[in-house]
Amino acid sequence: MKIFLTGATGYIGGSVAERMLREGHEIAGLVRTEQGAQEIGKRGMRPVLGTLDDAQGIARAAREADAVIDTAEANHAGVVDAIASALHGSGKPFLHTSGSGIVATVANGERSDSIYDEYSSFTPTIARMLQRAAIDQVVFDAAKQGVRSVVIRPTMIYGEGRGVRKESAQVPALIENAKKAGIGLHVGKGENIWANVHIDDVAELYVLALQKAPAGALYYAENGEEALKNVAASISRMLGFGGKTRPWSPQEAEAALGPRAHSSFGSNSRVRGKRSRAELGWQPKGPTILEEIEHGHYRRVHRPT
Questions:
Q1: pLDDT tens digits, residue range 17-53?
Q2: DSSP secondary structure letters along 50-74
């Protein structure tokens, strides 16, 4: 199958592309620069030069492909509009990457007991996530217009990326700030909980969704959950700080991690991938997030020598 993939040099996109190449698919990957083109070219992909704002180029590449996988930016409405319009009536698969942050509740490190699955209804409480929900709806609506469109919502992804980019944003950011502080850090009490999943299991879910997901489907990519204080303690042990942690105030977290810190590192995002398992037969097998931090990729890359 000829696949057009956005985010080809990214953490999710690169990992999904590598897995699809192993399945024997051909990948045309959207890249912004000649350097990016060279990097994915070495990995067996055909570069398509352009940006996420190049609606005409994206639509053309989508029409030329047998399937489209969008992993570039969950909140970029223009990309989804261009792909959905280009694939109208084609019956082609269109896998769009959203994220479980869509159900997140800002809690400043406090725990929430609300848990969602693919069949749960909810209204996002964060402005940026309202925008994301509207974009996801465009994908769902495309299923009514002859597109086999699917939304995949990964949770907190961890592990070594298989493409050009080797790491995600969340865990490495916590590690780097712990290094600077000499102690593990969490927003407030750190009792807030995020579902999580290994990057290899995410890539496997895309393979299964491409093969057999029905039009209009939603899947959460989740294989467990963890309180952020436990993640901070794990990072602390990995770095040789003895598991010690301390709270960040929301203001400190935002100064270190940017204006969205309170809505990610201080929030709850608890989901279950029930449909992913039942409908696609997805069986995640990766190590847990704490195992990966203390004994896997993060220890190999980030622990001081």
A1: 999 999 999 999 999 999 999 999 999 999 999 999 9
A2: --TT-HHHHHHHHHHSSEEEE-S-T
